[in-house]
Design brief:
- By secondary structure, the chain is an alpha/beta fold.
- Helices cover 24% and strands 21% of the residues.
- Strands 4-5-1-6-7-8 form a 6-stranded mixed sheet, with helices on both faces.
- The radius of gyration is 18 Å and the shape is globular.
- This is ATP-binding protein.
- It comes from Streptomyces gelaticus.
- Belongs to the GPN-loop GTPase family.
């Protein structure tokens, strides 16, 4: 067999290799409707080059996928996004972004298995795409926080008005974020970690 240089398997980049000191891992899932910024968030906060499964949107999706409000979007996640953050030398956080289109939601079952919790990304221009997402998390009993992704042309609403519109219990944290920014996405994950920690504390 004639192997040319382009056929050579080089393996992962050095910075993508899992540290040899890692002994434990936890999993968080980033969910939301179509086009709310899940792939962007995973990419902005991951320490490795994220794995994405974005495919170009075609005419086959017309009448099937609801792209109202994000008509300029040309690609969509069809399986998952994957990223990684080293919490310490021993502990690794794995990030999984779910597909937003409802026809791919059957993939959520596997993605949620073993997850500590979830981040629900919300676009205030299209709050309605978040209703079913939140409902599915509540049905599964998955703890979550809500992150309002601040798109430049998105309307601003008081926190309590958003909480009421999303029918969120008072104890569920809400935070504004810009999914494009590493620091902002990190703050969302920290909010989730603090919330999970509070749930684990024994009742007084």
């Amino acid at each position: 067999m004639d192997f040319r240089s382009s056929d050579t398997i080089t393996g992962p980049r050095r910075e993508d290799v899992l540290p040899t000191t890692a002994t434990a891992a936890v999993k968080v899932v980033i969910v939301g409707g179509f086009g709310v910024g899940k792939t962007t968030m995973v990419g902005s906060v991951s320490e490795i080059r994220p794995l994405t499964t974005e495919e170009t949107m075609t005419q086959a999706g017309v009448g099937v996928d609801d792209n109202y409000g994000v008509e300029s979007k040309t690609a969509t996640t069809v399986a998952m996004d994957f990223g990684r953050i080293s919490i310490s030398e021993e502990l690794i956080l794995y990030l999984f972004g779910t597909p937003g289109q409802e026809r791919f939601w059957f993939l959520w079952n596997g993605l949620f298995e073993g997850a500590l919790g979830a981040v629900v990304l919300v676009d205030t221009r299209r709050l309605e795409v978040s209703f079913d997402v939140i409902g599915r998390l509540e049905e599964r009993g998955v703890p979550f926080v809500v992150a309002i992704n601040t798109f430049p042309d998105a309307p601003k609403h008081p926190v309590e008005a958003l909480r009421s519109a999303l029918d969120l219990p008072e104890e569920v944290p809400m935070i504004d974020c810009d999914a494009r920014l590493r620091g902002s996405s990190r703050d969302v994950l920290m909010t989730l970690m603090r919330y999970l920690h509070s749930l684990a504390l024994p009742l007084a």
